[in-house]
Every structure is written in C-alpha cells, then in structure tokens.
Amino acid sequence: MRMILKPLIRYLKITFLASLMIMTFSAGRVFAQLTINILTVNGTDKQKDKDVNYILPKQLKAQDIIETDGLKLDYDAEAGAFYVHGSVSLAPKASKTYKVRIKDVWKMEPKDVQDVRAQIEEGYKRMQSTEFKDKSDPKKDNLLKRLDYITEQNKKFDDQPERRIEQYNLYVDELNKIRSEALSVKFWRAKDVTADQQGVIRLLAEVENPSKTLPRKTTHKHYLPAEVKPEHMIDMGDFAFRYDGARQQPYLEKEEELKPGEKKRYEFTILDVWKIPQIQIENLKDRTRNTYKLLEKTQYKATADFLVQSIKGNLELLELSQSKEKGIEEHISDFTFNKKLYEKAENDVTALEDLLEDLRKDLERSPMKNVLQKISSLKSMADISSALFGVKPEKKDIWKVLIGIIIFVGFLTAIYFLVWGQRSRAAKLKALSEQQEKSEAKKE
C-alpha cells in the first residue's frame, strides 16, 4: 500500500533579517542578533483596531528576547514558548511592521562541537584495550561523519537566518544524540545497525494544474512524517528538504511550471525509520542474559526474575507486531506503540543492571572476611572481577593474578617451614639436653 502526500495550502511567512553589526555578550558567548518582522495590515476603507499575537521560536529564553518594539511579552505554557501581543489602530489601507529583536541562538557553537568531538575520541580510546576494539572503529567513523554533516549544514546558511533556523530545528536533537552515544559505554559495546537491516519505504506525491487552458507556475510542498530527517532520504529527486517550524514537520518543496491540465507524480525513497532494528532488540536480549547470570544466585533473584519476564514479554510483542505485513499508513501508525514497547523493555534492562550495580556496592561495603562467601555464586574469575570492579580482566591480567597468588602462597609456605624447622630444632635440642642430664644422674 502506498500513501499519497497531498500538498497543503501556503502559510504566512515571517521574514528574519540578520543584524550582524550589533553583537551582545552573555555568559562568555557572543551572539549576533536577528529581527523578526511582524506585519499588520488594515485592508479595509475604515479605521480599524487590529490585534497582534505572535508565538516566538521555542528555543528562545526570556534573556534572548532583546526588544519587542512596544508589544507585550508573555509565556504560553500550552505552546511551550514566549509570545508577543498587543493591539494597534490602523488607518484605512494602512499597515504597521513590528520589529522584534532576538539573539541568534541557532548557531552551533564551535566549542560545543569540539566538546562532542573530544568525547567521541575519549569513548574510542576506552575501547582500545577491550574485546570491543574492532566494533569501535566503525562507530567512531559513523559518529564523526554525522557530526561533520550537521555542522556543515548549519554553516551552509550563515547568510540565510530563516533556513539556518530550519536546519537547527532538524539537527539539534541529532547533535544531542551524538553526544549521548559518545558518552555511553553501552553504545560502544552494542552491535551496529546497518542500512540494509533497516529497510526502505516509498512514498508517492501528486501535483496537478487544474487549468485546462493556461500553464501554471507553482511551488508545491509535500509534508513528511515528523520522524524523517534529511539523512533518511535515499531519493528525493530535485526537491529541497525544508522544515515547517510552526507545524514541527519536515516537507519537500519544488518550484516548477505545469502545462495546462498536466499531472505529475513523484516517488520518494526513505529509510524505514518506523521499525525498531532487530539488532537493537538482540542487544537488549544480550544485556538481559549477561546481567541475569550474575544475579540468579543472589538475594536479588526474585526481582531479577520479575524484570526478565517483563522484558521478554514486551520484546515478544514488539517482534510479533513488526513481523506482520502491513500497509505504509498502518506501519507508521504502529511505530508509536512499538516504540513504547521497546522503551519499556530498555528501562527494565537498565533496572536489571542497577541491581548488579547495587550488588557490586554491597560487596565493596562488606568486610573482607565476607567477600569470598558473597562472590562464591559468581561463575568465574572474570565474573568476580566484573562484579567487584566493573570490568572483566584480559587473559594476560588473569595470569598475572594467578602468578601473584602462587608467589604469595609460596612465600607463606616458606615462612611456615622456617618457623616449623626452628621449633623442631629447638625441641630436639631440648630432648637431647634432658637425655644427657638423665645419663649423668645415673652415673652419680
């Protein structure tokens, strides 16, 4: 089944003009200024009072709004943004433009990007002495490639504030995601998701010139589901990828001239971002199995059993839902339900790992005489090390520990034999002395 995306009516654009000559300083950072022009028009032949009400971009904080040009500033809790409002009396056919000055908070700061890049390098270095070294190379390349792409996209429209704000809205979540993944040990250890495992979806769009006699030059828009990002587009032809801030939804745009009565049909190929990749599900299963093995013979077994059953149930429902053949609309609509199932399972896995962390802390607080008793349920030296110190030793480290233990035991044994030898010698000398005394007494 294919979904046809119909063009929607045009909406009012508010132009943004950059005021690059004026700079403001805040918390050590330099911000350029932008001006939002809000146009109010009286199109009648009579004097008329006009209300002005405009919601500002959500990224703006109170300190980012420099000048409202006489309009009042308030916060709309429902919209989650500040807005300016007021009223003006306009003469017939008159207009008034309000200029609201704001800080340009839509530029990615070089320092923020460098900090994320540094965290990627740190995460990569931590994996080099572990069993996950081979996995870390493609992960590092992927993170840096994504970071470079969104940085270039942000720079691309330095002289076009409106387009840059669109790009920022598209990529700010991606930047935060890259940062979180760079800091996450679980990310570096997990298996990778490849494009061929993700699948693709093809969407159709149509445009038509309703006039049978006249050509028509038009700019048509085709709105996409909110989850779609530019990097998800495999084939979008010669359309431009744009973002509607008011609707918080991306769309494809193209300007062209249609012949009288001409009808055109377009096909767009998109990565299937509405399916939880199977490899991510398998990663959760692996984490569950590995953690449960360390908990099943401890005081946390009952809680661990409950969490494992919950994880298993949610993942089974998720896999069942994704295994069914569906049309595109149903497939996309079911994604919300499937995503919640995945998030529930992921939260339960985190809770399971928290139990192991609590066990580790309990072991660290225990007196040394109880340590062997508490870790006797763990299955190997690697498990014991992981539970106590949070890491699994490499083979060479295990041999070092074993050799150290042998040397220590040998040292204690040597001391024991020395002490035993001295005591034995003293006992023999004492016995010999007593025997000599007895012999002398008999002679007398």
Quote the beta fraction.
15-25%
| Number of separate domains | 4
Major sheet: 4 strands, mixed
The helical percent reads 40-55%
Task: Give the overall shape.
Answer: elongated
Q: Taking all residues together, what is the mean pLDDT?
A: 79
End-to-end Cα distance, whole Å, is 125 Å
Count of helix runs: 11
User: What string, H for helix and E for strand, traces the elements in order?
Assistant: EEEEEEEEHHHHHEEEEEEHHHHHH
- Class per helix and strand makeup: alpha+beta
Give an overview of the whole structure.
The protein has 444 residues and is an alpha+beta fold. The chain has four domains: 16-103, Immunoglobulin-like (Sandwich); 110-271, no CATH class; 278-381; 398-444. It is built from eleven helices and 14 strands. It has helices at residues 110-127, 133-156, 161-183, 185-189, 195-198, 278-295, 301-323, 328-365, 371-375, 381-389, 395-443, and strands at 4-5, 16-26, 29-41, 48-55, 65-67, 72-76, 81-90, 95-103, 200-208, 216-223, 233-235, 240-244, 249-258, 263-271. The strands form four sheets. Strands 1-9-14-11 form a four-stranded mixed β-sheet. The longest helix has 49 residues, at 395-443.
